[in-house]
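In the design runs reported in the main text, the only information available to the sequence generator was the tokenized backbone. The following block is the verbatim input for one such run; it is reproduced so that readers can re-run the procedure and compare outputs position by position.
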């Protein structure tokens, strides 16, 4: 199985190094939930709720923000220039070393 390490800073400031499979078509939200980090994903990954908002703190080649993700972020709280929805970022080999911070609830 191909794996990547992703650094997740939780809402208390604690950093977690997560080893995530890059060949299972899962996203950031799903891997955070699997490691019991406080990411809700209420909409199930449809970019309809912003409860999986994260801040990207490293330089990585991410997919462009879709129209749906952009619209959801426009309505969300605590949005920054580096905000993304975790459900919209699929894990792949290019994310090795990605550093993200969970947005406040």
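Verbatim output:
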């Amino acid at each position: 199985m191909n794996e990547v390490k992703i650094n997740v800073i939780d809402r208390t400031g604690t950093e977690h190094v997560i080893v995530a499979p890059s060949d299972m078509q899962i996203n950031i939200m799903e891997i955070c939930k699997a490691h019991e980090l406080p990411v809700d994903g209420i909409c199930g990954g449809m970019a309809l709720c912003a409860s999986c908002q994260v801040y990207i703190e490293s330089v990585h080649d991410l997919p462009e923000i879709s129209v749906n993700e952009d619209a959801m972020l426009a309505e969300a709280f605590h949005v920054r220039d580096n905000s993304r929805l975790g459900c919209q970022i699929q894990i792949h080999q290019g994310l090795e070393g990605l550093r993200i911070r969970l947005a406040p609830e």
